[in-house]
Amino acid sequence: MADDGSTAVIGTDGMAALIRVLAARGRTVIGPTVRDGAIVLAEIADGDELPYGWGVELEAGHYRLRPREDGAAFAHSAGPQSWKTFLLPQRERQWTADRGADGAMTVTEDDTPPASYAFLGVRPCDLRAIAVQDRVLSGGPHTDSRYRARRERAFLVAVECTEPGATCFCTSMGAGPAAEPGYDLALTEVVDDGGHRFWARAGSEEGASVLAELPRTPTDGATETAARERVAEAADRMGRSMPPVDLQILMRDTLHADRWNDVASRCLTCGNCTMACPTCFCTTAEDVTDLTGDHAERWRRWESCFDLEFSHLPGGPVRACGHSRYRQWATHKLGTWYDQFGSSGCVGCGRCIVWCPVGIDITEEAHALNDERAAGAARGEAL
């Protein structure tokens, strides 16, 4: 294949160079690294900080690091964080208000310049999640200017999935394991008898410019074939799946299913699933003052539809029980999200399954709802 600058093969030295090149361009590089017994997303300055030789063991309500013999850097599934943490921070000041000696109030908008991020290691499911949040926060008539500013300055390095976890189901949601357009650079990791290397493709002009600065060799047939085969194999090894039905219709048809009572008996309404989800976007405003009352601030912070106060009105909360709150979350994520934004709100990353303290599995719930609907139809009953 001709070296036209759009594809190349880089080694682990090229990965280290990629971090240096992005930092030299003024970007804060965020990537996966091992900390506190997990693979987390954090600022990194060197290739040695990547989780070479580490994988993860996942199940419902279970996450463990495990060593790998092949030394792969990206053979692990999604961790507890998503890129939402950086594009839509958990807590962000919006304005301050100060009362002067004359009693007049001065309100000042917080206009801190947004960081210029480079996200290294964006999984295809998370690439889809960023696209979903783009539609939610930047695609309508009321855009989030702060999100949009951070998003427009972000450089995305996608890494295709070659080893899905036991809780992954991105294939069911059409969100992986291959990277779809939207990246600046895409990488596929290959570790075999030919060595440890990455097949790199540029997805933007800046991506091609960055790739040109890295130590690289032209794309060879063996590396490209191996990369494509590993991604194809990953699609066949998903640990979970959604039922092969129209999920929007399934959610609509099962609003009164008995299964909601079953899941409500287990759900703690802790909101972990919404915090870990890469597409949940709900926020609330929080006002604070100092002891003098002369200085006040408004902060925006993440909110969860599992919070009893989330739908509180003068007469009380709209969704007073866990049954209604879990059903609201699931039916919105898998169903009514289509009505609002034209797509599903789920990308199949499996984080909500892993980080649920009691191991509630959204794919298991969807299958159970589908089975209950089918059983009812066989009896000539509607749910």
Shape: globular
Secondary structure tally, helices: 12
Query: How much of the polypeptide forms β-strand, as a percent range?
Result: 15-25%
The domain count comes to 2
Q: Give the low-pLDDT segments.
A: none
User: How would you classify the helix and strand content by structural class?
Assistant: alpha+beta
Mean pLDDT across every amino acid position: 94
How do the SSEs run, as a string of H and E? EHEEEEHEEEHHEEEHHHHHEEEEHHH
Q: In this structure, how is the largest beta sheet organized?
A: 7 strands, mixed
Distance between the termini: 57 Å
Helix amount, in percent?
Answer: 25-40%
The counted number of beta strands is: 15
Task: Name the strands of the widest sheet in spatial order.
Answer: 1-11-10-9-8-2-3
Using only CA atoms, what is the Rg? 23 Å
Describe the structure.
With 383 residues, this protein is α+β, with helices and mostly antiparallel strands. It folds into 2 domains: 7-235, no CATH class; 247-378, no CATH class. Helix content is 32%, strand content 24%. The chain has helices at residues 12-24, 84-87, 124-138, 145-152, 205-212, 221-235, 247-253, 259-266, 272-276, 322-341, 351-354, 362-378, and strands spanning 7-11, 28-35, 38-43, 54-59, 62-67, 91-99, 105-109, 117-122, 155-159, 185-192, 195-202, 283-289, 295-302, 312-313, 316-317. The strands form 4 sheets. Strands 1-11-10-9-8-2-3 form a 7-stranded mixed β-sheet, with helices on both faces. A 4-stranded antiparallel β-sheet has the order 7-6-13-12, with no helix packed on it. Strand 10 (185-192) and strand 11 form a beta hairpin. Helix 7 crosses helix 12 (362-378) and helix 8 (259-266) packs across helix 10. The radius of gyration is 23 Å and the shape is globular.
